[in-house]
Each structure stands twice: as structure tokens, then as C-alpha cells.
Amino acid sequence: MDDCATCDTAGVPSAGSLPWDIDATTKALIQRVRAGRMRELRHDVPLDDMVALLESDQHYTISSFMECLDCGRVLAWQLCIRGNPILRHADVEEVDRWRWSPVPPRERWARS
Ligand SMILES: [Zn+2]
User: Fold this and answer.
1) Which residue, among 19, 79, 5, has the nearest Cα to 43 in the 3D structure?
2) C-alpha of residue 14 to centroid of ligand 1, in Å
3) 66 CA distance to ligand 1 centroid (A)?
4) How far is the CA of 108 from the centre of ligand 1 (A)?
5) What are the start-end ranges of the H helices in the chain?
6) Least C-beta-crowded within 10 Å: which of 2, 3, 24, 88?
7) Is the pLDDT of residue 29 over 90?
8) Any idea where the domains of the chain sit in the sequence?
9) CA distance 84 to 106
């Protein structure tokens, strides 16, 4: 399959030791959702809130599954405390199979 111009280009490599630049990749995904090129399927928190929750250290793995409206595949973006961020394609079945865990109330970690 040829690279998809929407989902295969979302990951922004990090200049440091992480595989992906967390802020820039999250922004790239938000831009694609706002442009109607992807849609959020299921997540711990919306893309806009992922980095704030990560920085609060209150949720071990923060996952967001999105559907690429260009190629139809599902993309997973996962931020982990003290781990590498993961950007990968996933089977649609995984969206519900993922072991979702409760997120602390937003007022405990949100920036605004
Ligand atoms: Zn795609």
C-alpha cells in the first residue's frame, strides 16, 4: 500500500531520544481532525488534553484511536509515563478491546 498522505505523515520525529515529538505529533493529529481528514473514535481524553494529562503523571497510558478518513485505517496515538510515545496503525477491533481505565477528574490535571 502506498503511504497515506493523511495518517502516514502525522508522526513528527523527535529531535531528542524519543521516537516522536509528543507536542508536534499531537498538534499534527489535531490539525487533521479539525480539517475533517481524521476523526477521533475513542480516547481516554480528547487530543487537546493528552499532553496535560501526561504531564500530570496521573494516568499510565493515554490512548487515542482515530479513523483516517483518507484510507480508512485506524491510527493509535499512545503516550506513556516514562515510556516512548507510540504511533501505530491498529485493527478497528482493538478500539473496544483496549483495556481502558478511568481517567481522574479533569480539574485535577487540566491546564484550563
Ligand atoms: Zn490514512
Assistant:
1) 79
2) 21
3) 10
4) 34
5) 22-34, 50-56, 92-97
6) 2
7) yes
8) 22-108
9) 24
38 to 31, 57, 58, 83: CA distances (angstroms): 9, 28, 27, 26
- To which residue does cell 516522536 refer? 20
Question: What is the 50 CA–ligand 1 centroid distance (Å)?
Answer: 21
Q: Which residues have a beta carbon within 5 Å of ligand 1, which is an ion?
A: 4, 6-7, 68, 70-71
Q: Look up residue 47 and give its three cell numbers.
A: 487530543
- Nearest by Cα to 9 from 38, 36, 40: 38
b/e map 9-38, b = 16+ CB within 10 Å = ebbbebeeeeebbbeebbbbbbebbeeebb
What is the share, in percent, of the chain residues with pLDDT greater than 90? Answer: 95
Q: Are 26 and 45 in contact (CB under 8 A)?
A: no
